[in-house]
Amino acid sequence: MTSKSHELFVEEIFIKPEENKPVVKIVKKTTPSLKERGLSPKAIMEKAKKVENDEFYTLYEDVEKEISMYDKSIWKDKTVFCNCDDAIDNDDNRKNSAFALYFRKHFKELGLKKLICTHYAGKVDLFNQGSKAYVAYISCTTDGEKIYKDYPKGYDGSFDHPLSLKILHEEADIVCTNPPFSRAIDYWEIIVKSGKKFIIVSNIANPVTKAYIPYFKNSRVWAGYNRVDYFLNPKRQLTDAAGHWYTNIPIENRPKYELLKIMPLKDIPEKYKKYDDSKTLLVDNCYIPNNIKKPFAVSARPILNGVLEKEYKIIEENESYIAVVNGKECFRRVLVQKT
Ligand SMILES: C[S@@+](CC[C@H](N)C(=O)[O-])C[C@H]1O[C@@H](n2cnc3c(N)ncnc32)[C@H](O)[C@@H]1O
């Protein structure tokens, strides 16, 4: 978990209808680091576990920061599908999801073939799009952006509705969105099984959470580049979050490798290594021993920083590892071993 202060670029996103494309006015705000806000990794994990409300907006700058990390060539002639309430609206930027805005704004630059966004007819209408679900098909021609909104009878806009699944399987090349937290397990299953490429936001604790561990163990999913520390709540107020990007698009030379401290066990400072009551080694602060054969337990952080790409593997796929030290349970980890 990074403890740097963040420069945030928030809120002032708007559309100039006469230009038929979104315009993003960037406002810089500096926010305190997690450490400055008194948040420890444990506190973040606890918070991450408690997120139940689905109604959060992803910030435009988070989408921009992550998507701009991938080689542009991956988007060429591709259809991007944003399938979790990623509204499209030409009158007001606030009625677009940040994903919809980003891909509309960069459509030509990325060489996209098509953008397909769905509006979910849920209890909370996050983007003020009305109670009717729709599928919006966006393309760019020499005459400019073309938007066609389809309101099929009986469609609810859910990612697992047969029409959404048909689009996923038959039209989509890359799926990008921030799915509802409450349905994340179902969402991951559908999206991973579809075999499509994806870049999505989910809980930062997923690499040590039982339901998701098999995806990391079997290299079906890995961390994207960035964490997501803030969302906007329905009142458009900045709200702390504990999210991270996840993807199945190859990441070459992950910048966060440099946060991994791989070294002989004896060189790891005492304060970051201990044995639990069952004599399993626990290492913290991204220290990773490279000279022991036995499994040891790590938090989500080294997994997010790419340790599984450095000749280590998860050895238990069905459970998180809950260490017990002096009779007290510690936060969730996962057991890894050098291959
Ligand atoms: C975390 S919010 C993200 C919204 C938007 N994608 C963004 O990134 O700003 C998740 C959204 O998914 C919607 N949602 C809930 N259940 C859904 C479902 N079954 N299918 C699609 N979207 C759903 C919620 O209403 C909410 O608007």
Give a quick precis of the structure.
Helix content is 17%, strand content 32%. By secondary structure, the chain is of the alpha/beta class. S-adenosylmethionine is lined by residues 54-58, 84-86, 97-99, 120, 122, 124, 126, 157-159, 177-178, 180, 183.
Describe the structure.
This protein is α/β, with parallel strands linked by helices and 339 residues long. Helices cover 17% and strands 32% of the residues. The protein contains eight helices and 20 strands. It has an eight-stranded mixed β-sheet, with helices on both faces. Strands 14, 15, 17, 18, 19 and 20 form a six-stranded mixed β-sheet that branches. The protein has a two-stranded antiparallel ribbon with strand order 1-4. The two termini are 25 Å apart. S-adenosylmethionine binds next to α3.
- Helix/strand-derived category reads alpha/beta
Helix content: 10-25%
- From the N-terminal CA to the C-terminal CA, the straight-line distance is 25 Å
List unreliable stretches of 5+ residues: 1-34
Give the quaternary arrangement of the chains: single chain
**What would the average pLDDT be, to the nearest integer?**
88
The coarse silhouette is elongated
